[in-house]
Each structure stands twice: as C-alpha cells, then as structure tokens.
Amino acid sequence: xxxxxxxxxxxxxxxxxxxxxxxxxxxxxxxxxxxxxxxxxxxxxxxxxxxxxxxxxxxxxxxxxxxxxxxxxxxxxxxxxxxxxxxxxxxxxxxxxxxxxxxxxxxxxxxxxxxxxxxxxxxxxxxxxxxxxxxxxxxxxxxxxxxxxxxxxxxxxxxxxxxxxxxxxxxxxxxxxxxxxxxxxxxxxxxxxxxxxxxxxxxxxxxxxxxxxxxxxxxxxxxxxxxxxxxxxxxxxxxxxxxxxxxxxxxxxxxxxxxxxxxxxxxxxxxxxxxxxxxxxxxxxxxxxxxxxxxxxxxxxxxxxxxxxxxxxxxxxxxxxxxxxxxxxxxxxxxxxxxxxxxxxxxxxxx
Length: 351
Ligand code: ATP
Hints:
This protein is of the alpha+beta class. The protein has eight helices and 20 strands.
C-alpha cells in the first residue's frame, strides 16, 4: 500500500508513556496535521517518523517498505523545526544548496535547483543575501525551500510558524498550503493551534492523553467530534450535561426537554453530555415556549465587530451564541431572551 503507515506504534521513556497505540494510514500527497495539547506526544510521533527517535514497539512503513530502523539520513525526508535552524553566516542560496552539497550533487545542478526553488518561494532577488538580513516570513520560506531541495518523499514540519506574529502566521499558513498542493508532497505538520490545523490540513489527527482521539477531515472533526476531548479541543463549543429521556429527547437541568438525534442504545435515565456549536444557537426576544427553545438571561456580550458572542444563562446552563451584527436583536446584559437549539445541531458526546 502506498503512503505512510504506522502500526501499533508506541514510545515510552522509561516507564513514562509519550505516545501509544498509534495506528494510522497517511495517503500520498496529503497534508496531515498532528494536533493536540502540549505534552500529548505530537513531536515524539513526528521524530519517530523522521528517524530521530527509536520506537519502543510497532512498525512504520513507507510505500510498503519497513523503515522503522532506517537511519534518519537515509530516509530522505525534509524537516523544518520551530527554530528553522538556518545557518546565519550563509546566504539564502548557500542555505538552500546545503543539503544538495551534502549529497554530493554537482555545482551546476545545485545552482539550477536553487534558482528553481527561489522562484518557487518568490525570493529570486535574494540569493546572495545573508539569512540574518531576512524578515521572519522570508526566513520561513528559505527553511522550506531547503527542506524540499533534494525532492524528499515526506516533508515534516514541527510547529514551524509558532515564532511568527499572528498576521504573518496566517498568511504563511496559506502560502505553505498552496506550495504543498502545487508540489503534491506528502506533509505532516505538528501544531497545537486548531485554527492552523483547520486552515491547512486535508486530514487532522487529534492526539490527547498520549493516544489518537480522532482522525478525519477538519470539518468532520468539527461537526462530529468522536468524544468530549475532541469536542472541547476543536473550536469553541457549548458542552453541557443532560439526561436521556427516550423517544429522541433529552432533559435539561432546568427541566425542559429538547429533541435531539440520540441513539436508541443510550439507556433512558442515563447522564450524557451534549455539544452545540455557538453559531448554531439562535437568539430572539422572549417568546411563548416552543419546541427546542429555552428561556434565559444575557450574562455577557463580546462584540468584536464582525461577530458578537452572547452568553445566556438558561436555568444554570451557560450557553454562548455567535451571531453577526445583522442577526443581532440589540441585546444588553440582564435582558431576557429565548435561545433556540436546532435538533440537528445537537451532538450527544461519548466520554
Ligand atoms: P509540545 O506541544 O509541548 O511540544 P508534544 O505533544 O509534542 O508537546 P512530546 O514532546 O512528544 O509532546 O512529549 C510527549 C511526552 O513525552 C511528554 O510527557 C514529555 O514530557 C515526554 N518526553 C518527551 N521527550 C522526552 C525525553 N527525551 N525523555 C523523557 N520524556 C520525554
């Protein structure tokens, strides 16, 4: 099978688990994000793929070949770390040519490849400039050009954008994604920033508590999180406790019943957790009680211009709704409102 396969991969440092039970198939040409909170094992997993860390057990295969014990320098993978690790005393051209020189590529061929890569990253005029005299974004591009200079089979990026300011970071996300698509190079990006993962990835691998929690497209993970951990980590969400009532209904702590898509397997009377995304809630001025509508009091409003977040207390359950200025009904803190929770927007979460 083509692509990268990880089978029962795990890594322990002494008795401490860094990552366990990793089973993954990463198809060719895709950009895959390892996403998760600090310490969940993302970097360890990437370093095992790179050959910079040994496996405690399991197997890694690339295009059918077992590479679990292949030394890093024989894997021909391009890597970019947070630090970038460019050589400050060298020029842009020398930095990009470095891996080619190491591989014994002849001078004319090095020159041709460097100019091809400079064109790709739009820095043709800067070949002789020392990297110390580049902006953060330009350095970033040089690091990527150097990583892909020798046509690697895999590009591995470990939080490469985390040192950049928010605006540059967002534009680099788009730039790297466009470059990756143009080159069709299989890429793994480690990040703890869910917005970055959603912007860039074909496939997101959510890691938590040293294991994979879910694998899916960004929208699958956002809309249908596999469990409470993923629901909480991806995007903002209203997660609240409810009780299964049977007949497609759940009971809210305030006693109201909501219609929701709930499996018949959930025992009537059991305590469950529900997820509703803020953009799915609708606010209106108080109305006569209707299905899937709760009465509440506005407790907080965050108006950031393009969107307005309104937090409403509904009998002890705090729900936040996200609206655009056009949808807003002109609320203030303390106002009474009706909150509509569309049945199809509700997800019952497993633990
Ligand atoms: P971050 O986002 O903070 O970089 P991460 O998800 O990449 O975190 P890892 O760096 O892979 O997490 O670490 C996973 C776990 O393994 C952590 O608990 C960490 O303390 C532990 N760990 C990592 N490297 C070592 C090491 N060399 N020796 C001992 N424990 C380690």
